[in-house]
Specification:
With about 200 residues, the protein is of the alpha+beta class. It folds into 2 domains: about 30 residues, no CATH class; about 160 residues, no CATH class. It is about 15% helix and about 45% strand. The protein has 3 helices and 11 strands, in the order αααβββββββββββ. A 4-stranded antiparallel beta sheet has the order 1-6-7-4, with no helix packed on it. It is elongated and about 105 Å long. It starts with a helix and ends with a strand. It is found in: Secreted. Belongs to the dermatopontin family. Keywords: Disulfide bond, Secreted, Signal. It comes from Branchiostoma belcheri. This is Hemagglutinin/amebocyte aggregation factor-like.
Length: about 200
């Protein structure tokens, strides 16, 4: 009798092995091994993106140009933005005197910095913190000897939380400063710019 039971158990086990895993087993397995959500590639999120998610970057205009357009796109998985910058020809200007600002904000802190000495923004440097999910910034401030800035204004916020940014500097104006606030719920930052006209 015992040998008969052993034979039955062996037969059942053999049948299971020959049948292989069930479809339900495979479905459960696929659910367990599904890849975590990910951000799209930088250039998919923002055409022409010059930076990467969570990565440091430095962008600089040539000596006869200044920042004229700032674009960015946000991803909630990385809790970061990718960026694209454009430079515009500055008539009558050759920015031979340049200065990199110190870091103009702490992680999660407010940001407000204006380039000194009649200079305007010709570059940006930034690093990202995964623990704070925020960026710190430095500005490249540039000038031509003898030039002056005037007729300065401060923009409203140029982006909403988690939303794309596409800011074009108006003709005859230059970015002179940057301002921003961080939100720990959205893990994002909103930005404003100080704009000025220039007399070479």
């Amino acid at each position: 009798m015992a040998s008969a039971r052993a034979w039955i158990v062996t037969a059942v086990l053999l049948a299971c092995l020959l049948a292989g895993p069930t479809d339900a087993w495979f479905r459960r397995r696929r659910r367990r091994t599904a890849p975590p959500p990910a951000c799209p590639s930088p250039t998919t999120a923002l055409a022409g993106a010059q930076t990467t998610w969570d990565g440091p970057f430095t962008v600089q205009c040539p000596l006869t140009r200044a920042i004229s357009r700032v674009q960015s796109a946000h991803c909630n998985v990385a809790q970061d933005r990718v960026w694209r910058f454009e430079c515009r020809f500055a008539p009558g200007l050759l920015f031979i005197q340049t200065y990199w600002s110190p870091w103009v904000n702490d992680f999660d802190g407010n940001m407000g910095y204006t380039c000194p000495f009649n200079s305007v923004v010709t570059g940006f440097m930034s690093v990202h913190s995964n623990s704070h999910q925020d960026r710190r910034w430095r500005l490249k401030c540039s000038r031509k000897p003898g030039m002056t800035v005037h007729s300065c204004v401060v923009t409203g916020y140029v982006n909403n939380w988690d939303a794309a940014m596409n800011y074009i500097v108006p003709p005859s104006y230059y970015i002179k400063g940057i301002h921003g606030v961080h939100h720990n719920t959205y893990q994002d930052r909103r930005y404003r710019f100080t704009l000025c006209k220039v007399t070479p």
